[in-house]
């Protein structure tokens, strides 16, 4: 196996195109193209479908990309340890979170402490966070979903509360709270399946025997907010995410415990990586428990 050819394939697949990969400075576009074609020819396979100026991974290419992602992530980890990056003077941390609100204080602390670090942040639902960490697409994740997967190290980060919210013109805007039963009379704007916001709130609806008039499903928090402001119904959000929004008002659910714990996760085998360890230490410091991440870790056994 020629690792130079495999790396060329990985760079192109990761960047989404030959031109984009060449911009990273790894190699020229003609060189990358020739290396990928040589890799395909050596095995008699097609890794990319080429159309016009664009490309797309074939099913085989997608499978190979999953392998090269793990391969070169391990290489990066070995390089970091050998190069003495334990001081966190440089490097890039890939973060995935189910809410930017919950992860930004950690990134801000790391940035203040280690100015040479860079970060990439992807936001998705709670299920997506776990999948991206398991697939080596992120170094660390912040999610409200607990997992018993033995491959994942998990530690509690913080608690947040789900609240209802309505536009300022809504009759509930002047109220401080509402009962679950009152949602029978209203449409509910809710996140897609896979979101912990939806799972927790639907469980409480079922517990109280409440069926809202209509469920309006949208895919992102931003879309939930816009739908609520447009008058589509009552929305659900983490209290910390609502902030000081001049166009909406929070409404506390009086008869349901809607506290949700957010967890910081990473692959157990990558917990010693300097960037990951630095993130864990920052989280522990914010919680006022610096010993947690430096001591023996544990996996949460709750599903």
Query: Over the alpha carbons, how many angstroms does the gyration radius reach?
Result: 23 Å
Outline, from the CA principal axes? elongated
The N- to C-terminal Cα distance equals 40 Å
Secondary structure: helix percent:
40-55%
**What can be said about the biggest beta sheet?**
10 strands, mixed
Number of strands: 12
Compute the number of structural domains: 3
Proportion of residues in extended strands = 15-25%
Briefly, what CATH class of the largest domain?
Alpha Beta
CATH superfamily of the largest domain: Periplasmic binding protein-like II
Low-confidence stretches: 290-303
SSE arrangement, N to C:
HHHEEHEHEHEEEEHEHEHEEHH
Mean pLDDT: 85
Number of helices: 11
Salient structural properties:
303 residues; alpha/beta; Arc Repressor Mutant, subunit A; D-Maltodextrin-Binding Protein, domain 2; two-stranded antiparallel ribbon; 11 helices; elongated
Topology record:
Elements: H1 3-15, H2 18-23, H3 29-43, E1 48-51, E2 54-57, H4 59-82, E3 91-97, H5 100-113, E4 117-123, H6 126-134, E5 140-143, E6 152-167, E7 177-178, E8 187-190, H7 196-207, E9 214-217, H8 221-229, E10 234-238, H9 239-242, E11 248-253, E12 259-267, H10 274-287, H11 291-294
Parallel strand pairs: 3-4, 3-5, 7-11, 8-9, 8-10
Antiparallel strand pairs: 1-2, 5-12, 6-10, 6-11, 6-12
Helix pairs in contact: 1-3, 1-4, 5-10
